[in-house]
Amino acid sequence: MRRYLFGMQLPLPVVGMERAAAILEAVILAALAALCLHLYRRYRKPYFAWFAAAWGMYVLRMWAILSFLTTARPGWLYWHQVFTGWTALALLWAALVFVRQPRWRHAYFLVALFPPVWSYIAIYRLDHFVWAALPAVLFLSFATLATGWVFFRHFDRVGGTGAGLLAGSFLLWGIHHLDYLILRAQGAWNPWGYYLDIFFELAVGTGVLLLVLDDLRRGLGALGALSGDLQRAGREDQDVVAALLERPLALPAVSGTALYARTEAGVRCVRGAGACSSWPPTPPPELAARLAQAMDSGRPQLGPAPARRGRDHLYEAVLPVFRGTEASGALVLTGNARDPFAALDERFLVTLGQQVGAGLANADLTRRLHARTVELARLSARMVEQHEEERRRLSRELHDETAQVFSAVKMELGVLRDGVPPEAAGRIDHALSLVDTGIRGIRSVVHSLRPSLLDDLGLLPALRSLITEFTERSGLAVTLEAPGAVAALSKDAELALFRALQEALSNVARHAEAKSIAVSIRQDGSTLTLTVQDDGRGLPEGITPATIERPGHMGITGMRERIGALGGTVTVEAPEGDGVKILVAVPLAGARSPTKD
User: Fold this and answer.
1) 2-217: what CATH class?
2) Which CATH superfamily does the domain covering 456-596 fall into?
3) pTM
4) CA distances from 566 to 40, 209, 429, 490, 591 (A)
5) Which residues of the chain fall below pLDDT 50?
6) Cys-Cys with 334: which of 80, 256, 425, 495 at CB 3.0–4.6 Å?
């Protein structure tokens, strides 16, 4: 059967060409084996080791062919056939390990026994060429086509250039094996069959490299997006845990994610997403052991999911999450196909766990800071409210008690004046003048403590009165541009706007050296904006709008506290050589009905 299984008696020139092609193919296969071995040492993924083993057996097959061409001994032809079958099985198993992570079963030994058993029968026992060659060819072609189908299913599920190239290469290579009976065994396809095999081998090697690049691109893209999610979640008050769990679902074949944390009661599930959304708080024993191993060692635990009841996934990746230098929890990723971190090494995954832990810590710090800020804002609002209550009390006491006492004194002095000698009347008139001055001072203090016009007439008349009084007192020209009516605000909002204008005018009089002030009120949608702009010298040297809240200068700070408690904003602008502009914006939430001037 030797002359049928290997091309009958070939001329020496043809044998020489075949030997040269076989040597070239062996060199290329050795390079592919070295490449896959390097990938295994780099990423420690078992399917790279199986690819390396497959190419290594392919090299042994070429060595057997070369030995047969040199010696014509049937033993070398036997090993050539054996290594051919084992190479096809190794490539198929590498594809299955990459896509499905199957467990080895003892029944697979029976499949592995087919190449040595049938090769012995075909070469040493059968004399009929077709019966001897057909089962081996069909076995080789079926194994290669099955490998192509495995990669095609993977390509259909997750896409990727590498998976597509591997699927196409193995499917065409499996079809090519079928020409053995009618061409290659008859010597009609030598040495070009070797070159076609080299083409398919190079295509498969390229596909393996593209698999790595596809996984790197997808993995790094998803993890980079996760980093952005963690940062935005900390700044924008988003749910950082939801962002952490949802982003990895974009990785190929990842079906679920879950976050576990160490608590006083043990390791508990914080939250799950995807296929893990319904996981109970307490992990099952197998997962608990893997979680403990990952958190205690600080190293990712990657591998097939343990066989347990209710398992809805084939793969589990447990990544430790670090708070500082200690693992305080773990992120679990489940998959229905394979390792989602095919081309990401352990150091990268440890760094990912540190980043996730830092993101969670920052989010926790942001949440606490936000809560503290809310408490401080509430306290500030309460202090402002108490301040106004104290002002109201003092105003009432000055008006109802002190002013009344001065009025009574004035009446008594008036009565005394009618019966005193002329020389004493002048002294009493002077006393009456002092009492009038005191009464006016009290009324001025009462008005500054609590503007009665604001309670009696509303916001716009009170602002107009404040501007009129300021103009008379300071001598500065103040203009007011305001609509005929604005939406009614709460008492607190009206008082805050009144105090803001009062403080802004006072600052201009004290610091700006201005000649005129422009005040405008504008209602735009759901916001009421008060603008105060002067034509003075601007901010002092070394002071910017961002640093205007200096120690000892609490006017802007108090203004911002009042307005901020209402959900508004205070903005200071200082165009060079154009004075200072203060914009106070208050939301109109809660406005009731228009109020007119």
Assistant:
1) mainly alpha
2) Histidine kinase-like ATPase, C-terminal domain (3.30.565.10)
3) 0.59
4) 62, 60, 50, 10, 13
5) 1-12, 14, 309, 551-552, 590-596
6) 256
